[in-house]
Specification:
The complex is a heterodimer of chains A (about 230) and B (about 425). With about 230 residues, chain A is an alpha/beta fold. Chain A has helices spanning about 45-50, 75-85, 100-110, 120-130, 150-160, 180-195, 205-210; strands spanning about 1-15, 15-30, 35, 60-65, 65-70, 85-90, 165-170, 200-205, 215-220, 220-230. In chain A, the strands form two sheets. A six-stranded mixed beta sheet of chain A has the order 6-7-8-3-9-10, sandwiched between helices. Classes of the chains: A alpha/beta (about 230), B alpha+beta (about 425).
Chain lengths: ~230, ~425
């Protein structure tokens, strides 16, 4: 599903070159639930940006669902993000003043011709996705009218609505209280276990990483640990 | 993303900041209102001038003597020459060489105090021939015009305009009354129907007498001068041919080989109309351009607000990019937002401008002045609308492009 080979990323800060990733080899199969861990500055955000096709590696190959995305242009990357990746962010990142339903519908709008036909088809898909995360009764609520946990569930519905190859969750519980965190992690586990969703989770919390089936630890831009854990 | 989706996003974006959107729209609204109003006034002015000139008689061609030249070739001013004669008029009326001329009449002007009883009034007295009403497009309201016999016999008869009637006679019937012009007695035999029209001298402030009578009793020592010849062409379309024919005949009669040395000059109603129209058009363009400046100012307002909006919504742009919006999608979204702002402002401006133009003539301050009735033309409305949308497009490009170029990672990190 995901194959990274010798991926490096160097940021240029003025004249100084800062290496963020120093050669990552990583393979994630379909149906895996991987937690990527590491302290801040370990390169995990950079890795997530590359896996999420928000950024391209300086060197190396990145094959996502059969497509080499390392050398794609902006518009192709946008298309990959739209079809193959579902993002879940720490701060939910729902669009303000817009109902949950319309937020979830949005990736389908950018899908263009491949989207379910017509407005009604889209709305139907968005409704289903919201139902799947247990928000069937909140579809017309705006982000400000929902709790943090509900907002994150709406964000998960938005990530899933295009039926992407992977779900990429960046500190999804970072802004949530413990109860909501557990609730969200259970939802992710369930999506992985029951629907076979491939999930890549970025976190620095051991408690959260425990929900994953495999833990990859980064330090100074290199993988220092990669092991399967019992669920 | 289709147009409907883009419009829905744009409207949502604008509704999120109602006051700001309304104020930005106001800039365009005022600009468009100004354009519509001022162009309408310009149009009204143009139509008014047109009507006035048309009322002077259509198809009319004036022949003036060239400027007389004194010793050493010093010009003595327009129409001061005395090169035209009654014989020229007769030649033009033979109609063999000038089939496109219906009739030509001589004009001899004389000023003079006119008195009736204890009333007195000043009006120019025009000496001419019986074709005058036809050539100058006057109708007789009462009595009759003088005849060829009156001309031959120097009869002291006059036909007067409504303004003269009003000033001298009040409610008395002027027909058959005797008035005095420069202390000579004349009998009123007819009254012209009012022609209206203001400016260029009222068409109703006239006293018309046989040209021979004017020569005999009024112009005195100046002799049998024809100060101008007025000819009418068969139609507006034949004015140019008629002018050529008149020129040919007069050059031949005056034995002038080189047309640039002609001792007379022609001016048609069409020439006057063209001049006046071009002045009115210039006026309209200048007014429109001044108003257009305020449109540009409105456009800069849109650009300013769009830049603020793009900065404020950096994070939203990042989210949209993360979930698959391409550069083009973001560009279109913000462009449409700018165009909806300016287009809506433009449409409201057209409505306000048209309303003002419609109501202006009934304002007390303007009701009795010669302020022209503004005429809102369809092309100016369409132009104003498309220009305002184009302004949104033009001034929206930079902010929208800035939004579209944002890097998704940086945009997502923006607080």
């Amino acid at each position: 599903m995901i194959t990274l080979e010798g991926v490096t990323k160097v940021y240029r800060m003025g004249r100084i070159e800062v290496p963020a990733l120093q050669g990552i080899d990583l393979h994630v199969d379909r149906g895996e639930f991987v937690a990527i861990m590491g302290a801040s500055g370990s390169g995990k955000s950079t890795l997530m940006n590359i896996i999420g096709c928000l950024d391209v590696p300086t060197n190396g190959r990145y094959i996502l669902d059969g497509t080499d995305v390392a050398r794609l242009g902006d518009d192709e990357l946008a298309k990959i993000r739209n079809r193959k990746i579902g993002f879940v962010f720490q701060s939910f990142n729902l669009i303000p003043r817009t109902s949950a339903l319309h937020n979830v519908e949005m990736p389908l709008i950018y899908m263009g011709r491949d989207a379910p036909a017509g407005e009604s088809g889209r709305t139907e898909r968005a409704r289903e996705a919201l139902g799947a995360v247990g928000l069937a009764d909140r579809i017309h609520h705006q982000p400000t009218e929902m709790s943090g946990g509900q907002q994150q569930r709406a964000a998960i519905a938005r990530a899933l609505v295009t039926n992407p190859a992977i779900l990429l969750a960046d500190e999804p519980t970072g802004n949530l209280d413990t109860a909501s965190s557990v609730e969200i992690m259970r939802l992710l586990s369930e999506l992985n276990a029951e629907h076979g969703r491939t999930i890549v989770l970025i976190t620095h919390e051991q408690d959260i990483a425990r929900f994953a089936k495999r833990v990859v630890e980064l330090r100074d831009g290199l993988i220092v640990r990669d092991e399967k854990v019992a669920a | 993303m289709n147009l409907y989706e883009a419009l829905r996003m744009a409207v949502n974006g604008l509704l999120a900041n109602r006051l700001r959107s309304a104020l930005t729209m106001l800039g365009i609204l005022i600009g468009v209102t100004a354009v519509i109003m001022l162009v309408a006034v310009g149009n009204g002015e143009s139509i008014q001038i047109n009507n006035q000139i048309q009322s002077l008689g259509a198809n009319v061609i004036y022949v003036y003597p060239s400027n007389a030249r004194g010793a050493g070739g010093i010009s003595q001013g327009f129409g001061t020459g005395q090169s035209l004669t009654q014989a020229d008029v007769d030649a033009l009326n033979t109609r063999q060489q000038d089939p496109d001329v219906v009739a030509a009449i001589p004009i001899a002007q004389s000023g003079g105090q006119i008195t009736y009883g204890n009333q007195n009034y000043f009006a120019p007295t025009t000496g001419t021939t019986p074709d005058f009403p036809m050539v100058r497009d006057y109708q007789i309201a009462e009595g009759s015009f003088f005849t060829a016999d009156d001309v031959t016999a120097n009869h002291r008869v006059v036909v007067i305009g409504q303004t003269v009637v009003d000033n001298l006679f009040g409610s008395t019937d002027p027909i058959g009354q005797t008035i005095k012009i420069s202390r000579q007695s004349f009998r009123v035999i007819g009254v012209f129907a009012p022609k209206g029209g203001t400016g260029f001298g009222s068409q109703d402030n006239v006293v018309v007498a046989p040209i021979t009578t004017v020569w005999a009793y009024l112009t005195g020592a100046r002799g049998k001068v024809v100060s101008q010849i007025v000819a009418s062409a068969t139609s507006a379309g034949t004015v140019t041919q008629a002018e050529t024919e008149i020129t040919t005949i007069l050059l031949e009669r005056h034995q002038i080989a080189n047309p640039s040395q002609a001792d007379f000059q022609l001016q048609s109603q069409q020439d006057i109309l063209n001049q006046a129209t071009s002045i009115a058009t210039t006026l309209t363009v200048v007014l429109g351009a001044i108003a257009g400046i305020s449109l540009v100012v409105g456009g800069i307002g849109i650009m300013n607000i769009m830049l603020v909006t793009v900065t404020e919504r950096t994070r939203e742009i990042g989210i949209r990019k993360a979930i698959g919006a391409r550069r083009r999608d973001i560009l279109v979204q913000f462009l449409i937002e700018a165009m909806v702002l300016s287009g809506l402002g433009g449409a409201l401006g057209i409505a306000v401008g048209a309303l003002l133009a419609h109501e202006a003539p009934s304002l007390p301050a303007l009701a009795n002045s010669s302020f022209p009735t503004p005429v809102v033309s369809v092309p100016s409305v369409l132009l104003a609308f498309f220009v305002s949308v184009a302004i949104g497009l033009f001034f929206g490009i930079y902010p929208a492009n800035r939004a579209a170029r944002l890097h998704p990672i940086e945009a997502l990190r923006y607080e």
